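user: can you give me the structure for this one chain? tokens are fine.
assistant: on it. calling the predictor now.
[tool input]
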Amino acid sequence: MLKAWGFLARSSVKAGVLAAVMAALPPGVQARGSGLSAFDGPVVAVAELPPQGRKTYALIFEGGPFPYDKDGSVFGNRERNLPRYPRGYYREYTVKTPGSRDRGARRIICGGQVATMPDTCYYTQDHYSSFRRIVN
């Protein structure tokens, strides 16, 4: 019986220490090994996006139609510059670049389970080298 109480006491202390450590972590930090992480990079307001970016952003929430066939396709996040989520979480959309004969380098990447209601979106003007989280 005494062994059981000792085990329970040690377990209770460990749980208390773990709770204290978790409470001290800044918001958005998640447990290691979860496969998920928070984005702590720069942000950009919707109003600060280029006009073409604002148009693309609005089309995302309207469900299209999009000007490029690849718009809405799965973004693999191979560069790992965005928080890690299972494949299929992120979708990419082209932001037209004036004067460019192809899709250009500008994209909006949105993550979420429902394409027209993304959890969050990111803007890149340098073809995935850097991202800014889009805020309203």
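assistant: here you go. Confidence is low (pLDDT under 50) at residues 4-35. The chain has one domain: 36-135.
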